[in-house]
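Notes continue from the previous slide.

Worked example: a multi-chain complex. Inputs as given:
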Amino acid sequence: MRSMALAVVAMAALCGTGGQLSAQVNKETISVTGAGATFPYPMYAKWFDVYHRLHPNIEINYQSIGSGGGIRQVTEGTVDFGASDGPMNDEQLKAFRGKRGCDILHFPTVLGGVVPTYNIPGVTGEIKFTPAALAGIFLGTVTRWNDPAIANANPDMKLPANNIVVVHRSDGSGTTYIWVDFLSKVSKEWKREVGLGTSVKWPVGLGGKGNEGVSGLVKQTANSIGYVELIYAVQTKLAYGSVQNAAGKFIKADLKSVTAAAAGAAEDIPDDFRVSITNAPGDDAFPIASFTWLLVPDQIKEQAKHKAIVDFLHWMLADGQKMAEALEYAPLPKEVVEKEKKAVEKVH
Amino acid sequence: MNTQPSLSEADRTPEPGAYARTRFRGLVRLGDPLFYGLTLGCAALIIVVTGWLVSQLYIHSAEARHELGWRFLISQNWDPVAGDFGALPFIFGTLVTSVVALLMAAPLGVGTAIFLAEMTPRRLSSFLAFLVDLLAAVPSVIYGLLGIFLLVPLLSSTVVPAMQKVVGFLPIFSGSFFGVSLFSASLVLVIMVVPFIVSISREVLLAVPVEQREASFALGSTHWETVWKVVLPCARRGIYASVFLALARALGETMAVTMVIGNNPQITKSLLAPGYTIAAVVANEFTEATGDLYLSALIELGLVLFGITFVINGLARLLILATGKGLYHHG
Amino acid sequence: MANLIRRRMTNAVMFSMTLICAISVIGVLFFILGYLFWNGGRYLNWDFFTKLPAPVGESGGGMANAIVGSAKLLLLATLIGAPIGLLGGIYLAEFGGRTFPFVVRYVADLLNGVPSIIVGIFAYTVVVLKVRHFSAWAGGFALGIMMIPIALRSTEEFLRQVPRNLREGALALGATRSQMILTVVVPAAMRGILSGLMLDIARVAGETAPLLFTSFGNRFWSEGFNKPTASLPVMIFTYAIGPYEDWHRQAWAAGFVLLAMVLMFNITSRLLMSWRRSR
């Protein structure tokens, strides 16, 4: 018994110091914690790691627990900043003000797109989807692949008469938010029947967990269609189709078309940066694109943290943007960057 | 008929509390009451902690309970956007997957435990039990990944079509199969809970005193008769305990289930259709839930699951009581 | 004579069925472990154990902080959950009456059935919200709560298996109740109790959901127990659902390491036990 107790105490001591043995711990290490969206996680992980190398005493720890989680944690004050794929609504802003006594600012970081991915045995080309077709498929009103809604846009393709199997996200997510935001804009029926949110009541389909779950299901299920983030589709080499934008052109998602969507919206972007850019105007714009935001309180009490966050934001708007393309994220258009640089001053 | 060889007074494990009553009259040493108090405190602490947890669930689900009332339990509509929530499909999914999983896991687990305890040489048996224990450590996420990348394709391509040829006329095996389904989730649960049953049952079987077995053999029983009529009844409590633990794990299992169940809140008669469980929907939607009603509805689901666990445990114990002929250890 | 043949046949048939059960279970077991070892072990290198996670797109890097973090969390969980479960189990087996043990066992089973994410939410509400930050304490607390039911139930079962004459012998020699329990009964049941404990630790070692809102996660080292802490299950979860092949490989490797850690706990404790026995 005694020897066991001794062993336990020894282990505890070891664990407690384990971190210290290898860490560069000095009194000035500034630890900043952030939580939120999973969509930009690879980008943020890269940024924070690189930033740490540049400033070894600053550790920005970001965990992807979901946009809603990010909003909630930053409102509760358990993390220093949040991140979300969808802007906070007025109710959440009010809740934040009530709980924390100051306001919260939105800072767009990068852009991403959501693409329709499919698996139809025998069909290898790229399918063109009209907004009406996508809405119909996900509403359950378009049930076969050779339905005129799809076939008319793809006259050279031979689409089978098979039933479409719809795959959507089971977990609440920013990706879903962007997708249904688009559908709500292009389909009155969707807006009325289903609506907008990070989790919705899907009329039809199977639910997969995460982009991984959706792509896994699509890969394994014949005649299926699902939606995933662009970066995911590219990395896992999924086949995805093009979508018709507001100008009538069929655009396949890539970094250029996503940035074009933001450029179109850049002139009218509100001061608080809370804007939806789905179905954006412009010939080259990809219609299912979105900003993703960092949520920063406008008052940060600890001086050290304040300086670290503000410095990081400036760095992100300059050097950080240069790293986006390598990871398949679209960088912000210049106009938005300029506007943001000024907005960073609002963080006290 | 299940007749155990009658055990003499001296060999029966003591009735609970027997010692407490005899010894405590005339107690003078300090150590004993201290120890008694300490152990009692710990046992009571479990009730306290659980009560605390349930009270937190109750408090934080207040908004949903007031807003939705009893409708929550019978409505099939889960609509976060419209703010209307109904728990029935999740209750259905939870019950179906857990019960089906346990119906398969219990015989499988106990059978394996019997084999390991009775038929395998001690070294091999220990080694295998060791490995079975390891299965319990495999993270739920990995079971999910294995489920979706190995089990589901296997089911879609070979197992289910074969099954449907033979028993496809039964309503529970009807309909089209997309791989993810209540059935797949049940199978994954079986794999996840069997280690508990095997591990504990095997230990309990091994702990049955050797004199019992020898007495049975001396009377001319075959090995199986000894196991069935002497060893198992002796080990019965422990085996039940392991099955309860397995049931509890199945009811609360989250990650692995959500990856293979299809996440479709619906009530179907076919096991091959996708479904949804309480634990899965809470895990999926909790981190993104915005809005207080949504959040409290999810927490109310947790409360409902607690209620379900309460009822199932109660029913199971009643069942054991009814078939156990009122053995001196019950519960 | 016909009766004997029938009985022998029943014997053969029943044991064959148990053999089939055993083969299916052990077969699946070997398959899963093998798959994990193969997929995970392949990509394991020294970096994995010594380095921090590398940024996306760069190879190398490892999960050193997650390994230490998981060890810390498991240690806390065991310190919280095991004593309560053990001592509670002792009470139920040695002192209890009829109703109180029944209630405690019932409640323990209920606690065991609470989904891990809800235990996590509970720990979040009770620990994290009070201090306004994530920590290993919160994570250990959540895992500890999850450990209690199994520890309690298995301890009680194995204590009950100890034959009565052992207890009476101790008392006859003049031992007090506590002495009897601690020096005779518990050691007699130690094998089973330890085995139950190992199962318990194994189970919580792989839990992800309770940690998401308690210990949170960390890309860097976390000194002490009061900061957000990385852990293997959370890393596995984050990496497994990410888009990069490299991340998937690391997720499998982490699963392998987690299993290996639990294996080591297991082996060490059994060695300790048999070393004590042989003294």
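Summary box: The first helix of chain A runs from residue 2 to 22. The longest strand of chain A covers residues 104-119.
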